[in-house]
Amino acid sequence: MKIAFVVNELDMEKAGYTTTYLALEANNRGHEVWYIEVADFATYADDTVHARARRVPPRKFRRSSTLLQVVRSGENPAVHIAVDKLDILLLRNDPSVDVFRRPWARLAGINFGRLAIRHGVITLNDPNGLAQAVNKLYTLMFPHQIRPCTLVSREREEIVAFQQAEGGTMVLKPLTGSGGRNVFLVRPQDAPNVHQMIDAVSDEGYVIAQQYLPEVEDGDTRLFMLNGEVLQVDGRYAAIQRIRPGEDIRSNMTAGGQAQRAMIDDRVLALARRLGLRLVQDGMFLVGLDIVGDKLVEINVFSPGGLNSAQHLEGVNFCRRVVEAMEHKVSYARQLQRGFDNVQMATY
Questions:
Q1: How far apart are CA 247 and CA 168, in angstroms?
Q2: Cα–Cα distance between 208 and 172 in angstroms, integer?
Q3: Is 258 exposed, middle or buried (0-12, 13-18, 19+ CB in 10 A)?
């Protein structure tokens, strides 16, 4: 299997990232593994898709840190590859990272992924599905009953009215963003400063005002879905409980959250089942659900992280199951001589 991982920038990758762990597993299973930065695609006059890429050397690595160090080293220079010759293009770049500094790069993975599909490259997650989910409005595509009450607006008065309707307590966050940036918990005593909070968030565009869920005091649950179903191995679920640091409302790992073993109960599994069909319809291969209590707070479809933490906490190699799923897709695609529907293949 020839697979390329699309990332924002190689220097931004870390040994503990899910992407690195997936690359490690695929490489150690004997596959040809490449890294492509989202700015390094090209199309030629004959409509073929190419990219500057760095290959993971074809030898086994014990540690993800060693793999990443070798890939970045000067001994492993970038070369031009034909993307059309790949079996899988795995889109692991986060568009929100490039919103301000490199807005032209934000949708590059999606757009070049669409072109790769024309030549029979399995592109995960499906680019057209990702285009629908490029911001947090995607969560609103799911039933109202399974998510917090939410307002999306840029009008101060509407947001303040929402706060009052929620008893004075709400969560504010930007429509486009990740990692817990500019997320605020607004309480009744914050009323004199709420306009400044709204302004801080609206500087990034639309504002999400969301119902406050008291269960967030215990953090949130990141649960992974694979092919529209809960990812599990031998009855152990690919999930972590993210505990927020101190009084901070955010439990994102990048904001200082700590990972603990998650207790997955029937409420969480029922919620995941209600989401599965839509994820399959949208070609979402690997997804991270953020759940508070029995409510879906966010859906992470671009580069959901935390799978490595779930592996350590559960003592299970979830990355192996993900790579095995990709191997299955490639085997089937070869039988079809690369003539397939990418949405269906993404969750087959």
A1: 18
A2: 6
A3: middle
Q: What DSSP letter does each residue of 197-252 carry, written as one string?
A: HHHHHHTTS-EEEEE--GGGGG-EEEEEEETTEE-EETTEESEEEEEPPTT-S---
Residues 206, 297 within the same domain: no
What is the maximal distance between C-alpha atoms in the chain?
Answer: 64
Starting from the edge strand earliest in sequence, which strands make up the sheet with 150-153, in order? 150-153, 207-211, 170-174, 184-186
Q: Is residue 342 part of a domain?
A: no
Q: What does the pLDDT look like over 184-243, one tens digit per residue?
A: 999 999 988 899 999 999 988 899 999 999 998 888 999 999 999 999 999 999 999 999
The total of structural domains in the chain comes to 3
Q: Are residues 118 and 6 in the same domain?
A: yes
Burial category of 35 from C-beta neighbours within 10 Å (exposed 0-12, middle 13-18, buried 19 and up): buried
Q: What is the pLDDT of residues 75-108, one digit of tens each?
A: 889 999 999 999 999 999 999 899 889 999 999 9
In a domain, residue 336? The reply is no
Q: What is the dihedral of CA 261, 265, 268, 269, to 10 degrees?
A: 110
What's the pTM?
0.92
Task: Please name the residues in contact with 55: beta carbons below 8 A apart, sequence gap of 6 or more.
Answer: 32, 33, 34, 35, 71, 76, 79
Q: Are strands 32-43 and 150-153 parallel, antiparallel or unpaired?
A: unpaired
Q: How many CB atoms lie within 10 A of CB 121?
A: 24
Amino acid at 325: A
Burial class (CB in 10 A: 0-12, 13-18, 19+), 161: middle
**How many Cβ atoms from other residues are within 10 Å of residue 106's Cβ?**
22
Question: Residue 292: which CATH number?
Answer: 3.30.470.20
Q: Is there a contact between 250 and 180 (Cβ–Cβ < 8 Å)?
A: yes
Q: Using DSSP bridges, classify how beta strands 32-43 and 2-7 pair: parallel, antiparallel or unpaired.
A: parallel
Instruction: Please tell me the total number of residues recorded for the chain in this structure.
Output: 348
How much is the pLDDT for 100? 85
* pLDDT > 90? residue 52: yes
Give me the residues paired with residue 91 across strands.
Answer: 6
Q: Is 132 exposed, middle or buried (0-12, 13-18, 19+ CB in 10 A)?
A: middle
